[in-house]
Amino acid sequence: MNSFSSFLSLSAVIVLLFSGCSTPYQGSGLRGGYDESQLSKDTWRVTFTGNAATSEQRAVDFTLLRCAELAKSEGFPFFILQDEASSVDSRTWGTDGNMHSANFPRVSNLMQGFKTRPMDVNKVVYEVDYLIPSLKEKYDLE
């Protein structure tokens, strides 16, 4: 295969990866997804990275959904976000004299779970049994 054919094949792979369907709700993979790190018995850093077809709102919602699922799996019916951060990674590339660009949303939350509803916090308190079905219905997830 000559260098031009190799370049075309690589360009086709890049276009396929960065276009099409938005990132599904899944663990981190080639098309993006969520990742988490447990920082203490009740605290996690949860991150969701989307592909070029993923909206910022979808990335925010999928990060919240993963927070809720983690809280529920660990026996916490409530959680708060101690910290929230979002960014968009803009990538530009050229093929055959044409420039292409794509934006990839990334959301990161520092989440803390609670066994009972916290009353002395100045933050939104999320209820996992409400949030999980609400977001799954919004995105038609099982």
How is this fold's topology laid out?
Layout: H1 3-18, E1 33-40, E2 43-49, H2 56-73, E3 78-95, E4 98-114, E5 126-127, H3 128-138
Antiparallel strand pairs: 1-2, 2-4, 3-4, 3-5
Helix pairs in contact: 2-3
Describe this structure as you would to a colleague.
The protein is an alpha+beta fold and 142 residues long. The protein has one domain. The protein contains three helices and five strands; from the N terminus they run αββαβββα. Strand 1 and strand 2 form a beta hairpin. Helix 2 (56-73) runs antiparallel to helix 3. The longest helix has 18 residues, at 56-73. The model is unreliable at 4-13 (pLDDT under 50).
Structural class: alpha+beta
Rounded to the nearest angstrom, the distance between the terminal CA atoms is: 44 Å
Q: Overall pLDDT, averaged?
A: 88
Q: What is the spatial order of strands in the main beta sheet? A: 1-2-4-3-5
Total separate domains = 1
Characterize the overall form.
Answer: elongated
Pattern of helices and strands: HEEHEEEH
Helix content: 25-40%
Strand content: 35-45%
* Total number of helices: 3
* Largest sheet properties: 5 strands, antiparallel
DSSP summary, beta strand count: 5
Parts with pLDDT < 50 across at least 5 consecutive residues: 4-13
Q: Work out the radius of gyration.
A: 18 Å
